[in-house]
Amino acid sequence: MSLNEDCSSTDDIRSDEPLSHAQTVWFNQPLLLERGGQLPKIRCCYETWGTLNADASNAILVCHAVSGDSHAARHNANDQPGWWDGLIGPGMSIDTNQFFVVCPNVLGGCRGTTGPGDLRAEDDLELATSPNQPIPGVSINSDERSPLEAMSRQGGGDERPYGADFPRITIGDMVEVQRRLADHLGIVKWRAIVGGSLGGHQALQWVSRYPNCTHTCIAIATSPRLTSQALGFDVIARNAIQTDPHFHGGQYYDRPNRPVTGLAIARMLGHITYLSVAAMEAKFDPDRHDPRHIASDFEQRFSVGSYLAHQGQKFTTRFDANSYITLSMAMDLFDLGGNRLKLMETFDECTCDFLLVSFSSDWLFPPAQSREIVNALTALDKRVTYAEITSDAGHDAFLIARDMATYGPLVQERLRSSDTHRGVNLSAGDAVSKGQSPVQLTVAEESILEIIPAGSSVLDLGCGCGELLAAIRDRHAGTPMRLMGVEVAQENILSTAMRGLDVIDYDLNNGLPAFIDDQFDVVVLNATLQAVDNVVALLEEMLRVGKKAIISFPNFAYRALREDYVTRGRSPRAVGEFDFDWHDTPNRRFPTIADVHDLLIEMGVTIDREIYWDVSQARHIDADDDPNLNADTAVLEIHRS
Amino acid sequence: MSLNEDCSSTDDIRSDEPLSHAQTVWFNQPLLLERGGQLPKIRCCYETWGTLNADASNAILVCHAVSGDSHAARHNANDQPGWWDGLIGPGMSIDTNQFFVVCPNVLGGCRGTTGPGDLRAEDDLELATSPNQPIPGVSINSDERSPLEAMSRQGGGDERPYGADFPRITIGDMVEVQRRLADHLGIVKWRAIVGGSLGGHQALQWVSRYPNCTHTCIAIATSPRLTSQALGFDVIARNAIQTDPHFHGGQYYDRPNRPVTGLAIARMLGHITYLSVAAMEAKFDPDRHDPRHIASDFEQRFSVGSYLAHQGQKFTTRFDANSYITLSMAMDLFDLGGNRLKLMETFDECTCDFLLVSFSSDWLFPPAQSREIVNALTALDKRVTYAEITSDAGHDAFLIARDMATYGPLVQERLRSSDTHRGVNLSAGDAVSKGQSPVQLTVAEESILEIIPAGSSVLDLGCGCGELLAAIRDRHAGTPMRLMGVEVAQENILSTAMRGLDVIDYDLNNGLPAFIDDQFDVVVLNATLQAVDNVVALLEEMLRVGKKAIISFPNFAYRALREDYVTRGRSPRAVGEFDFDWHDTPNRRFPTIADVHDLLIEMGVTIDREIYWDVSQARHIDADDDPNLNADTAVLEIHRS
């Protein structure tokens, strides 16, 4: 895909124009910083969309990434584009007709909220000249000047911008400022906190520090901490800025030159890390030796060179070098834990549900990192949905229109809830009224449905489109049940999630390492056994994770198959699960009822219940009626002491 | 793996000491450069190991990578380490007891051969002060001064180092200098040209420009051109150097300060690209927040930061900034073609055989790029062996001891040849004398061996350890036969290559896109059909690529299996290929003779010959004796008009 097709990455839509709908509030109580020191007062610049409802229960906090700002979306048709227009707006996945959306500029930034470019004087000139009456602790002031313009104000005496003396801040400090904003707006608990990349770090920091702060946490293209590789790139970027001859220890605001070269180089480096290899090839290979010429002293021998020169220079007109250092350092210090136990400690008390999304070609925040978080949340038995979206767009994907169209529905579904009792099952009526077809179950699924008691916690491995889980929920509507699916096919993950079910993106051939012993009352493997490579390993895992397990499978010793094989001497075929050619059947294993019984006995497993069907003849087969011959389908409920 | 365990990457062994065994020769004829301009005379600095034999047939050219030099290996036990000690030496894979090994510093470098740090005056001071009599066209001079020292010589008038005015050179220009060295040493044709990374570019450039220059081309961790991503990183690195305030347009040699900051930043960037993600995690994650403190102004907040600072600074003591620009630009301009047709044009006339090696975690020169070259060579019917080595060490792997131990034998085998008639089959005696066990064939393989005519070209898909190909070669020793294997398991690739056979690393489920129509007389799929996912696609490909195809497979309608299945009602088992549990059999497909016949008929294929065996009873089964029931093994020779 060409980046030109989707001008949705941050760079193509930003400008250094003033933020026309930005609001500003001053927090006059000092902010004690995590790493020491304090900021005497904080100016917070933010934008909002929609209306806060009467009980302040519909507020969504949107957190921006390192080079972003408060302008997440347009406010009207004539407004300049926002960086998440594909996700936020009237009728969009984050529906501003329904929710009150808040997006503040982060602490340490250069787009309105206090940052290194701000004056460090104790007396705040702003306060003295504000047309509004000062309110103790809080002041409202709208500053129409461009943020960069505001930064270049001259001051006498001590009134210099912080520059590189701006204290070292953390993601936690950013969260504290956002919390003050929430207080100011009268928001006690967010409906959701949403962010990608650095924004995802903020969302995760919020819930780890304030476990009850939100109903939902949506963390996209993010991680519990940067990889060492990403960290290395940030170190180099900062070195480039800080060794720029015009950096002057960060005190460059009143000088004729700014460290634009170093900042441009830092940005070029960032750019490569945001793009996938495939995206770069598509964009630059066709005219590799034909650079577009732009006004720049940077090298322009190759097309990628002129692109980087352009992007680097453009960035320096709208972003402050000290801010870049401050924010990248905050991101580099962010560390929720490098192993499962530490992550579990981090999220242990969270009461929210989670949605995590990663992108297959994102090598800066690789999917494996989202998976670390998902594994910890799963082991803690938190409500979580996780999807790794197939995409060519690299880390940028979370901002690209095409990818937003794919993962937006997950966000929308996660936000959809007509009642405040989280976890209560929606009725079948709700699903139908949303336009989904009523659930149609197979015979085996009907049997499984019958034997799962109300109130059970159920894990469905290879849950398909979630039809069985949805049927279980419908059957016991009114009784809270912990239901979770595991799937590996993207369309199935999306379909299951769109039913309002928790589902995680997982390859069963890797076992179930995310789950803990006896985590679920029932673990189901429905019509999936024949697709599994590591059968014994998976059965062992099911018996570990579930107090009981239910497996259903087609019986490859079914009479019709034996007859077909013996008479035709060919790979046997019959209707249903058996109706494939030998050379392209999706089936990987060919279990028979007798084989499975033998294996289970060998594994020391107890069979608590056996249900057999000849589905092709719509006939139930008794256990003493030679099911190995007469049944084409088996359902076994098992456990191991 | 920790980089500290294998101090074999370039950085840990380099020093800025003089190269004690370096020899120098002057080429006084101007060198016309590919991109225009010329160099009036060239000093070439090189090292040699071993002795050139009487007919000059044992010379091997070793080409170094961007920050390397002529010191590829120690000359004696007391010598400083060489960058390829794990590959070159007495009794090593490149055996200096047997071969005459030559390693020159590249044109544009800063380790003895003419580069940007050299004087650009027409009069060469060196020549005037040489103790030796000038020989027309060539002068010998040994320069004991350190190369960097030599670069800082002062000169009056026009005698300035080239600096950034050094003409733009290409890999082709480097090759021209090496060619002059070959002439000087009396070498008409190399036994082999070997190189990794940029050294691989040189090897490929040699053979594309001079198709008869060598018997063997060995190209490791390399590409037909850089990816756009790698190119982008190089552009940023050069921008960092060129914007260093001390760069002075490249004329810094007589100044108190050099552009060490920019060069260090360039090197830091390179470092990250040479390491795999896993290697960085192993090295830096455990003490991420505990940097070792070194004397540096670069950021040292994180362990990766102090490492990069150390590596960056160390590099500046031994490498020249202008050289870095010159060499990286040459690498960036290198482009043998971005598509198969162009690559085929490039290598069309080559008469050498090829060995290519890539490394799984190398993301700078990813394996897919080696595969592009392999595909072009294969379509040209060149002799080629290709292995993608599983490694955690990233691009650095080609210099790491552990990985050299894995791929070294491939190099050694490719160089081993007791006769100069390339392509003539080695006798079975040769193989046995090397300590390999005589080839033991299965019954099916014996049948296949019988029906392949002498002189056929044979492609064996899923060739295992190469036993069938070796047997074919032995059977027809004395008759040149084009034999090639395809395998996907690393140990099989290595075993097959160690028999002196060509083998390429390929997943048959992707078809055979590398090969052209009717490329081989016979394509064999021996005891592999049952492991293939895309059966029809592969059969189609075999029939396209081979004038005839031979498939052998176990017959899953064999009597014993039918009886077992019918009586026990379990997944059938029998001896041999059928002796697996249903739940972990490696078999993916379960063909029967009847099924395969039906499929072939459907595909319009003619069966030219059918051979059936009951191997378990060592009994041949006639085609009219119901082989579908009585045979456990089938061999079919087929073709399609």
Automatic annotation (TrEMBL), chains A, B:
Reactions accelerated catalytically: L-homoserine + acetyl-CoA = O-acetyl-L-homoserine + CoA
Domain of life: Bacteria
Gene3D superfamilies: 1.10.1740.110, alpha/beta hydrolase, Vaccinia Virus protein VP39
UniProt-annotated stretches for the region Disordered: 128-163
Localization annotation: Cytoplasm
One GO BP: homoserine metabolic process
Keywords: Acyltransferase, Amino-acid biosynthesis, Cytoplasm, Methionine biosynthesis, Transferase
GO cellular component, one term: cytoplasm
Pathway given in the UniProt record: Amino-acid biosynthesis; L-methionine biosynthesis via de novo pathway; O-acetyl-L-homoserine from L-homoserine: step 1/1
Root EC class: transferase
Domain (AB hydrolase-1) ranges: 59-399
Classification via CDD domains: AdoMet_MTases
Active site as annotated: 197, 362, 395
Positions bound to substrate: 267, 396
EC code: 2.3.1.31
MF terms (GO), sorted A to Z: homoserine O-acetyltransferase activity
Pfam families listed in its UniProt record: Abhydrolase_1 (PF00561), MetW (PF07021)
Alphabetical list of NCBIfam families matching this protein: homoserO_Ac_trn (TIGR01392), metW (TIGR02081)
Entry function: Transfers an acetyl group from acetyl-CoA to L-homoserine, forming acetyl-L-homoserine.
Subunit relationships: Homodimer.
PANTHER family: HOMOSERINE O-ACETYLTRANSFERASE (PTHR32268:SF11)
Family the entry assigns: Belongs to the AB hydrolase superfamily. MetX family.
Protein name: Homoserine O-acetyltransferase
Organism: Allorhodopirellula heiligendammensis
